Amino acid sequence: MISPATRAHFEALLLASLQEGLPADWRARAQALPLPALAPVRDLRVVMLSIATFRCRLHVLIHHGLQPGLQTVFAPVADEAPQAQVPLADRLAEYGNLVCGAINRELGCSWHYAGMSTPSHLTGDVLDHTALLRDQHQLHALVSVDGQRLLGASLLIGSHAPFEFQRSEDLAAPAAGELEFF
């Protein structure tokens, strides 16, 4: 139901979104790579978001094992007041929001009424049950910084009817701080 071209467009979009969602200082040192299957690494935590349209539903999963590199990459900025510091779990949820939001924006260029959920924090055990969602296609990726695994990600795509999707190559990335209404 999902053509090879559509799968390739979603894979490129996922990898670009994972890269762009990282803090700006880390993007050049990071690499997002596709994986043929869910990584055998047992992650302890998952941030899950979903996107629903009339044509399909997508689940974005950001999975991590609280690797030490996460504390470094998603650390508070230097001038952030101690009382304003955000816990790592919330920073990872915001990263998931950025990744999912980029995918949602791209879908919105082609399809109206694409809606996005808020992040849910789940245990890593949910990764054993992704097949129960009966998605037509699953994409998995690894995000590494300086050659060290930072986190994993999955995009699960389900549809009730055949559909095509083509990523827009010519769209300019939104500027930081731009308001987005859902």
SSE topology sketch:
Elements: H1 4-20, E1 30-35, E2 45-52, E3 56-64, H2 68-73, H3 88-110, E4 115-116, E5 120-123, E6 137-145, E7 148-159
Antiparallel strand pairs: 1-6, 2-3, 2-4, 2-5, 3-7, 6-7
Note down, in words, how this protein is organized.
With 182 residues, this protein is α+β, with helices and mostly antiparallel strands. 25% of the residues lie in helices and 27% in strands. The protein contains three helices and seven strands; from the N terminus they run αβββααββββ. The chain has helices spanning 4-20, 68-73, 88-110, and strands at residues 30-35, 45-52, 56-64, 115-116, 120-123, 137-145, 148-159. Strands 1, 2, 3, 4, 5, 6 and 7 form a seven-stranded antiparallel sheet that branches. The longest helix is centred in the middle third of the chain and has 23 residues, at 88-110. The radius of gyration is 16 Å and the shape is globular.
